[in-house]
Design goal:
The structure holds three protein chains of three kinds.
Chain A (H helix, E strand, L loop, with lengths): L12 H11 L3 H19 L6 H18 L9 H20 L45 H5 L1 H12 L3 H12 L4 H8 L3 H24 L1
Chain B lengths: L9 H12 L5 H13 L1 H18 L8 H16 L1
Chain C lengths: L1 E6 L23 E2 L9 E3 L12 E8 L3 E2 L4 E3 L1 E7 L5 H21 L3 H10 L4 H16 L1 H19 L2
Antiparallel strand pairs in C: 1-4, 2-7, 3-6, 4-7, 5-6
The chains are: A mainly alpha, B mainly alpha, C alpha+beta.
């Protein structure tokens, strides 16, 4: 069933102000912009190029494109979307040229991927099929210091680093960077439905990694 | 759509959770989802785990920009400023 | 329209955690649905819906404005809590749980469903909402969706009768 595209929102008031500072040549504003988007741009580049080194080159090239395009940027999309689109376009070209690109189609979620191993639920022949065999843990019992410690963050970061590229790009844009769904869809050229599937799979994998970590 | 019109199972809930949190579930499915959470502590804890996961990921700091990259980009910015 | 609403013991909504102004020697103040626009309104139960939403505290709620009737709840733009239904207390909850457990046993044993029967007692500590589901689900296993609905109707009748609704 064809999905209606998410209505893309334009640049916010905060962004309009940032743009003005950038166009005025404010170096600190530019540095802050780079810091804020660099990691996400890498994740987005990796949806089309397979090596980290090439992705870094793509991102640098993209920043040059951002700088050159600052005057012309009309604010019809958010800054993040615009920046990521530049990354995608450069990455696609690089990927094709290298003939080692991640096929574009793989940005759409492939096949099935269970959020939780099926064995953890009662089987079709059991009483109450589909229900937990044993409940998952109640993380309200995990001490706050543990939730907030560096180790926990590291586990989440490692889990994200191991995700397939499309899932990594979506969770990085949505949950690390805090972009909206419509920004992700516009930047990565995926439908809202596909974006949600990728986000779902990514979050499920990271949750599983954290569960293994907390369960010791 | 859920397997039954009257209830969802835990294995369905763990697949619906993202759509529920995104408020993308159709009203009938959202109602079944909530009815299930109303009696199933296991799934309440699972949804909480997902929310904790999102919060944890939200605390990840942006990736460090390598110093050489930073200076190259700043140089490009200054060049653009001058022209 | 008069309907019903379950809240957590601290007076917050089960899913939104909205803190309801509670009735105190008279109805509570009117609440408008803007409190959580994404929720499309204030949710409440009709008598028939009670077994599906069992919670710790039960209130009578008055709904105002255009009330939308959905399969298992009603949704309104504006509402106020009229009174707490004190009869829904710990002992009634236990009675209901036991009623559902007995029904579940009766159904499962008559149909020789030992595996299903074995889940009943261990579920009892988790309370009335779970046991209501267990009984209805066993009924459904034996005789299909109609039996599920019939069991839920029986549960709703028991509640309405016991709570004087």
């Amino acid at each position: 069933m064809p999905e209606a595209p998410l209505k893309e929102r334009t640049a916010s008031a905060e962004e309009v102000e940032l743009l003005a500072r950038l166009r005025a040549g404010d170096e600190r504003a530019f540095e802050a912009l780079v810091d804020r988007h660099y990691g996400t741009m890498l994740a987005v580049a990796r949806t089309h190029v397979s090596s980290r080194a090439v992705a870094e080159e793509v991102v640098q090239e993209a920043w040059l494109g951002v700088v050159k395009g600052l005057e012309r940027f009309e604010g019809r999309s958010s800054l993040a979307t615009w920046i990521m689109r530049i990354v995608v376009n450069i990455a696609k070209t690089r990927g094709v040229r290298e003939a080692r690109s991640v096929p574009y189609a793989s940005l759409a979620p492939e096949g099935q991927e269970a959020a939780v191993e099926p064995e953890r639920f009662r089987g079709p022949g059991d009483a109450f099929p589909g229900h937990w065999r044993a409940y998952p843990g109640n993380w309200n019992n995990v001490p706050e210091e543990v939730l907030y410690e560096r180790d926990t963050l590291r586990v989440a970061m490692e889990a994200i680093a191991e995700l397939p590229p499309a899932q990594r790009a979506v969770i990085t844009m949505r949950d690390v960077q805090g972009c909206r769904a419509d920004e992700v869809c516009a930047a990565l050229e995926v439908s809202d439905g596909n974006q949600r599937v990728l986000l779902h799979r990514a979050r499920s994998r990271v949750r599983a990694a954290l569960e293994r970590h907390f369960d010791g | 759509m859920a397997e039954s019109h009257d209830h969802v199972s835990c294995s369905e809930v763990v697949e619906l959770v993202t759509d529920y949190l995104e408020r993308s579930l159709p009203p009938e499915e959202a109602a079944l989802f909530e009815q299930h959470l109303n009696f199933c502590d296991g799934c309440v804890w699972y949804v909480d785990q997902i929310q904790t996961t999102v919060e944890t990921v939200g605390r990840i700091e942006p990736e460090e920009v390598p110093p050489e990259v930073r200076s190259q980009l700043l140089a490009a910015f200054r060049d653009w400023k001058r022209s | 329209m008069i309907a019903y609403k379950f809240l957590r013991p601290d007076g917050t909504s089960v899913f939104t955690r909205y803190t309801w102004p509670l009735p105190d020697d008279g109805p509570g103040p009117w609440v408008d649905a803007e409190v959580d626009p994404c929720r499309s309104g204030i949710h409440a139960c009709r008598r028939a819906d009670l077994p599906l939403w069992l919670g710790r505290s039960l209130y009578e709620i008055e709904l105002e404005g255009e009330v939308r009737e959905e399969a298992t709840k009603v949704v309104a733009p504006r509402a106020r809590l009229l009174r707490r239904i004190d009869a829904w207390d710990e002992s009634t909850r236990d009675e209901y749980t036991r009623m559902c457990a007995d029904r579940a046993h009766e159904l499962a044993r008559a149909a020789d469903l030992a595996g299903w029967d074995a889940v009943v007692e261990p579920s009892v500590p988790e309370g009335p909402a779970l046991l209501g589901f267990v009984a209805a689900r066993i009924a459904e296993k034996i005789s299909g969706a109609d039996a599920y609905h019939a069991e839920r109707r029986h549960q709703a009748d028991w509640l309405a009768d016991r709570l004087g609704l």
